[in-house]
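Hey, resending since the last one bounced:
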Amino acid sequence: MHEMSIAESLVDLIEDEARKEGFTRVRRIEVKLGALGHVEPAALRFCFDAIARGTVAEGASLDIETVAGMGCCPRCGCSTAIAQRYDLCPECGSHVQMTAGGELRLAELEVE
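The structure tokens again:
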């Protein structure tokens, strides 16, 4: 389950920010999660709750915004929504390059 290592990295990042910025508690965390990134949101929430115990992030709400898959065709320049990596361009049939949908990014922290 790679969600556990993702949750560990997320808490480490938050703890580093707490040391740098001097906050003592996180109330809300917003994460942008690509729909094609192979991370299960429910599993990430479960792992985050377990890893956050005893840290500044304990009890924080974890809001996950799913970012849809998007791609751009290198042949014709068409920008299109994609349901999976390596989808075909609806205009010319070439494989599109994914431009969105694979990210995992800490977008916002609400702190005290």
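Strands lie at 26-34, 61-67, 70-72, 79-81, 97-100, 104-111.

Sorry for the duplicate.
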